[in-house]
Amino acid sequence: QLVAIHPDDFRAEKLIGKKLKTPLFEKEVRIVGDKNVDPDFGSGIVMICSIGDKDDLEWILKYKLKIEKGIDEEGRMTGLCGKYRGMKVSDARKAIIDDMKKQGLLIKQEGLEQSIGTCWRCHTPVEFLVMPQWFLKTVQFKEKMLKEIEKLDWKPRFMKRRLQDWINSLSWDWVISRQRYFATPIPIWECKKCGNIVVAKKNECYVDPTIMDKECPECRTTMKGCEDVFDTWMDSSISPLFNTCWERNPDLFKKLYPMSLRPQAHDIIRTWAFYTILRGILLTNKLPFKTIMVDGFVLAPDGKPMHASLGNVIDPLKILEKYGSDAFRYYAATCAVGEDNSFREKDVIHGMRLCTKLWNVSSFVKKIIDGKKIVLEKSRLKIMDRWILSKYSKVVENATEYMDEFRFDKAMKEIEEFLWHEFADHYIEIVKHRAYDNDESAISTLYTVCSGVVKLMAPMMPHIAEEIYTMNFKDAEGDPSIHISSWPKPVLTDEDAERKGELVKEIVSKIRGWKSEKGMSLSKEIDFVELVCEPEKIIECKEDIARTVRAKELVVAEKENLKENLVAVKPVYSKIGPVFKGKAEEIVEKLKTIDVGKLSEDEVNVRLDSGETVKLTKDFINFEKTVTVKGKKVDVLNIGDTVALIGRV
Ligand SMILES: [Zn+2]
Ligand SMILES: [Zn+2]
What we know:
Blueprint (H helix, E strand, L loop, with lengths): L1 E4 L6 H4 L3 E3 L6 E6 L11 E4 L5 H9 L26 H14 L32 E2 L5 H7 L4 E3 L3 H11 L4 E2 L1 E2 L9 E3 L6 E3 L24 E2 L3 E2 L1 H5 L2 H5 L6 H7 L2 E7 L3 H16 L4 E7 L2 E2 L16 H8 L1 H10 L6 E2 L2 H25 L13 H22 L3 H29 L3 H18 L4 H16 L17 H23 L8 E7 L9 H8 L1 E7 L4 E10 L1 H8 L3 H9 L10 E5 L5 E5 L3 E9 L2 E8 L2 E6 L2
Parallel strand pairs: 1-3, 6-14, 13-14, 15-16, 17-18
Antiparallel strand pairs: 1-4, 2-3, 5-7, 8-12, 9-10, 9-11, 17-24, 19-22, 20-21, 22-23, 23-24
Helix pairs in contact: 5-9, 10-11, 11-12, 11-14, 12-14, 12-15, 12-16, 13-14, 13-15, 13-17, 14-15, 14-18, 15-16, 19-20
The site of one zinc ion has 8 residues, from loops.
């Protein structure tokens, strides 16, 4: 219909204002000058006919050209195309090239790289069709939308930017009609005679206009019901309004709207989020929700999106079957909100192990608390119990803060670390003996911490949490389900107990580590342990330590009472060999029989059979000593400023 050339093009002067004839069709077409033509693209001359993309439409609207339809809904050429009518697009292309060749019009034919729209499923190139559509006014609300989305609480915050960019890029209104068989009908009637348009009244909805006749109120002829259906986002964007009973139950709507949360993924920010907010604002003048949580994707283990065609799809049902839903949910909780994550099966396995750990801990606690709830005041609690309760209280505080910020990964980590590496690994080991003796301070603490941890984990691992709650705490707590019970609160802060507790924890784990090194079982008794430190630091926990490390006797002393005795000199083979070469073997032999009672600790003189004396400095030998306390042999362990002397068994 039109040919355009850039006015600065050297050919422009000759061409602008003239007419040309198109090949094959012999149609006369005007040539215009237009600064929007890119002289460097292709031939530098633009041909404007029907619509191949959005740019074409802009040319057509600018020059007020007729919108012509060259391809029909079945993908065949229309009557506009003369002898090519009825051909498929690809066949018509071939036929046109053949005809141009026959008439000698084709000068050159070459490959060209272009980006074109294709079907996302089968990659067939997409052709644009000109169709009448229904639009919802959108562009005029851009500023309002930009202002409103500032009031939303975005989790994570950076996702707001994506919607801002989308709104700023909008240049067209929202096409709300589709030509499909199944979807929501558009409740509109059109009068073919006078052009009148009638929208269904509220009390007529829900209505399919194609099966309900309406008379035109203007000219009294029967109108035609709209055969189009709504864009799917027209339905889904009304979900908060529908779910809060908008226009159906005003009292409930007032109570429920706006909703507290919209959870969704980042791929539908420009659709679901945008349209829902738009319609909420337009229909109620309010945002439809207060907070929007935008999640990332779970990608295939190779980091690519999962696609059946790539063969990298993980079937979630199989994962659930294999590891259980709580383990799978644990994995999901470890993914930061808004970030895409490659699927990590090992994290699901870890989640399963965490379930087992939680179950074992809870089974122990069940035995101890025996269905009863004992909660003592702070003043009646022992140091180690105050230690774990103070640490637990910090976990509650931090996890709650993380949960409020939707940082489920951080909350999960905080809770897990505490459960596994403080409560299970240390506290329970230290408190076991008291718990079995029905010590109320221990029972009270086990109850508080275990019930609290299970509640903290309930949002992430709801099934095992409910099971443990039912098994251990339901009778005493009274709430029929953990998921409607109250969220745990911090219990106490006790910095003094925390300092002392940490030291006790260190002492116990050092001594237990020493046992493992010596190949002893942890339940093996030790003759005696002497702890050298300011007694005030640990004196209250003396019994807890003694019984946990199974020391027959435990003394806390302010001063070391040690005596060191040299018992042997051991050669450092790696040093002696290279230096003394042929004599090395003899030196090692002589060291075995040397009289240690007469040695100084700096060096050793070894007299060889040849009469030569070899001087061995500290680099070549190690002095082996024993330490004794009041005549008993002991091993020495350093734990910060504290020294533990352990009676040899
Ligand atoms: Zn397709
Ligand atoms: Zn009419």
